[in-house]
Amino acid sequence: MGNLVRDWEAAAELPKELQDKVRLVKVRLGVVLGKEGGALQAMLPSFNWGMGLVMGSGKQLFPWVHMNDVTGIFEHAISNPQVSGVLNATSPGCVDAQAFGEALAKALNQKVRGHLPEWAVGLMFGADRKPLFVEGHKVVPEATLASGYRFAFTDVDTALADILRSGPVWEAMSRSSSSGSTSQ
After folding, report:
1. Closest CA to 1 of 118, 131, 97, 134
2. Mean pLDDT throughout 93-106?
3. Which pLDDT score, from 0 to 100, does residue 125 have?
């Protein structure tokens, strides 16, 4: 994944003759959590079926970000001409995968029951995205904060409560739990 990101960022570089004339902002995304699904929607079935599995060992860092903050960071970068360079779109409240799993279980009134082996994470998310979930990276949004952006969601519990309150993820969760066990 690291090579892919480097290649994308290299492709985004401006030609020398434009570097003084055009502002360039590169936004690096963490694991985006939102009401429209994505990573969270893939994680919900194990909790809805009463299994509550944490991905990998649980010790790896999980650089999450709420979708509202992703759109907020892009709006901030577009609206503020002084913003340039790389902005990390990851919550300053980064947690490890175990803490994330426990927060998700709490939000769903479930329990963490164990760990999803790395090979199974690869099946769920694909080999190209598996490292995002099992290797973990400490991604700090220093430049994002220094640019003046203020995150709406810095606490994983608050972010998950907001996302799971309504919307397509909630509807999918309701459908899934009605067909599977929700025992604690």
Report:
1. 131
2. 95
3. 82
- The answer to whether position 123 is within a domain reads yes
CB 43 within 8 A of CB 97: no
Between the CA of residue 7 and those of 2, 33, 84, 139, 154, what are the distances in Å?
9, 25, 19, 19, 30
Token pair in block for residue 184: 């604690």
Domain of residue 44 covers: 2-179
Q: Is the model's pLDDT at 100 over the cut of 50?
A: yes
Is the Cβ–Cβ distance between 184 and 109 less than 8 Å? yes
Average pLDDT for 98-104 = 95
107, pLDDT greater than 60: yes
User: Is residue 122 domain-resident?
Assistant: yes
Please give the share of the chain, as a percent, with pLDDT higher than 70. Answer: 88
Give the CATH number for residue 118.
Answer: 3.40.50.720
Contacts of 44 (CB under 8 A, 6+ apart): 108, 169, 172, 173, 176
